[in-house]
Amino acid sequence: MSTAFTRTLAPISDPVVTVRALTKTFGRGSTLVPALRGIDLDIGRGELTAIMGPSGSGKSTLMHCIVGLEAATSGTVTIDGKEVTSMKESELTKLRRDHIGFIFQSFNLVPTLNARENITLPATIAGREIDRERFDQVVETVGLGDRLDHRPTELSGGQQQRVACARAMVGSPDVVFADEPTGNLDSSATADILQFLRTSVDELGQSVVMVTHEPDAAAWADRVVVLRDGQILGELRNPTRNSVLDALRDGK
Ligand SMILES: Nc1ncnc2c1ncn2[C@@H]1O[C@H](COP(=O)(O)OP(=O)(O)OP(=O)(O)O)[C@@H](O)[C@H]1O
Q1: Does residue 1 carry a pLDDT above 70?
Q2: Which residues form the ABC transporter domain (predicted)?
Q3: Is residue 140 included in any domain, yes or no?
């Protein structure tokens, strides 16, 4: 059932990510840019959360601060009980390697490796054993079974993004961050990827956060969080394309 846009965020029990009073200011002196202006946000475990908002509203900055790619100016971020904002660079590298999955708009596959090798690359680099059962489960969910020996150039854009999705999920990360994951795909490949993200949440219990500009993509989420001018404008549960469009209009 679709619900209305609310300005106050409903409490989340057992969140996987907790953000408190987060600010990020770029530059100094007369060139100060307040990109995040006090964000309080919990991300639900085992949910697909979409982050939306106009260009420049702070979506990327928020994601980068959550995973420690940008240092916050003030405030705290916790991922599955680990406080990201107090970590040293070496701890952040380990956190991103062992506990976070990333899916980018541009796939970011290694051209000389086949699909199977691309999926297992992060584990190979970390010297970690691949859990066979998880590998088979993820490859089946993503529908890549007969393409594992192909290199990226032998795959369509949609298939390449499925490889990138499998790579992000195979290590059972605490949370997967997807930055405009369907931005480079046609409508049929887009539907495949969104269906996969949905299934990974519903059947594998994966927690996923997706930044998107597309109301159609956001409608696949359990919850849409809308940012504006570096602040949280509100949220929408069980979104539909139309309720997302209304929520974005509400913020104007
Ligand atoms: N490295 C940086 N140095 C200075 N300003 C920055 C930097 N990165 C982002 N900003 C500024 O911070 C604000 C938020 O940018 P951000 O990229 O997070 O927005 P966004 O919502 O992700 O936008 P888009 O949808 O266009 O990707 C913008 O005003 C942007 O110009």
Answers
A1: no
A2: 17-248
A3: yes
